[in-house]
Amino acid sequence: MRENILIIGNGGREYAMGLVLKDDKRVECLYFAPGNGGTHALGVNIPATKHTDILESIQKYNITLVIIGPEAPLSEGLSDFLIAHNVRVFGPSLAASRLESSKAYMKDLVSQAGIKTAKYMQSNDINALSEFIHTLTPPIVVKADGLCAGKGVVIALSHNEAIAHTKEMLSGKAFGNAGMRVVIEEYLDGYELSVFAVSDGRDFIMLPACQDHKRLLSGDNGPNTGGMGAYTPTPLCDKSLLEKIKKDIIAPTLDMMRKQGSPFVGVLFGGIMVCEKDNELTPYLLEFNVRFGDPECEVLMPLLETPLFDIVTHAIDGKISELECKMIEKCAVAVVASSKDYPYKSSPAVPIAVKDFDKNLGHIVYAGVSKAESGEILASGGRVLLAIGLAESLEKARDNAYEIMKHISFKGMHFRDDIAFRALGR
Hints:
alpha+beta, 13 helices, five-stranded parallel beta sheet, 25 strands, D-amino Acid Aminotransferase, Chain A, domain 1, Dna Ligase, domain 1, 4 domains, Rossmann fold
């Protein structure tokens, strides 16, 4: 029987998953809730965000499988709600989702598991936090405990600045309830990797490491964003380093979750800082997310040789150990085009012009877009779209992504010109 699949979310990550699922012969129809102006071309958009409305749509359209893309619905217990109504769901439970929705919970859990992570303190007491801040050498990392769409982390360059940011978060002015508890961390110096494991609650498989580019401007300058580009595979993570991350970080975390009665089913995304100590590369855990990264998902999906459908269903059915995850031997680079005022405020919706380009270069992933009544695609969100370059080499994949970007234009369009610079140079 062919399956009707519902993908929850409205970003580039969900579009990228839809793009690979739509061509799977086992898929009858794709649905997106709520979707975006680009997902119209891949399936059917459903204007549902509440749990009950989503369940109603599942029953109405005979949907047999649900994939939850973003962190917010996971942290609101959507997975538990749907499973309680006998729906097959790919995405962790509310309890397991705390690995992302509470940085304090995550730090305490991984410390208990003996996983290498930055020295930290979590509290809602400004006096205790201030005292701890003065034990650290700047720069100092200040994190809001809850979900902040990737923008809840500040690197403070002095003790006074760290205390000021901590006070602002605790007051609720910076991030509302998400900042009412704060995590203070020592600053780790190294390079970051994004690492992904797909777990069925007991066993797991690893995907290739990616590297994200969080800062708005080229040269890693400007404010943090949800991500301005990514690439995979990265020469900064060889097989031995990935194995070390798997053994020392991913496996003990999943074991601890299972022992605590919250087995993890879905995608565990580790933000890793690789530090060089005594001429040896040592991975430290920065954070966990409980879903595919965005924009990392957009570079992983086109390189999957093992179908996403198989990965998802094997995880749900508790059979991930029976699956060998194979990747196409190519490289992928994603360059994000954002709106003029991102990440500070929203910009007015404007038309997007896309000229014909050689499809052998790669493709476009639509994210913050809407569809006008005329059928025209409009740039309406912060991160609007991504140019995905594919090639045998990383350098060629990067060139292809930027070649595609030359064929795209909209008013106020911004993108970085140095994606993959840590691997290739500027």
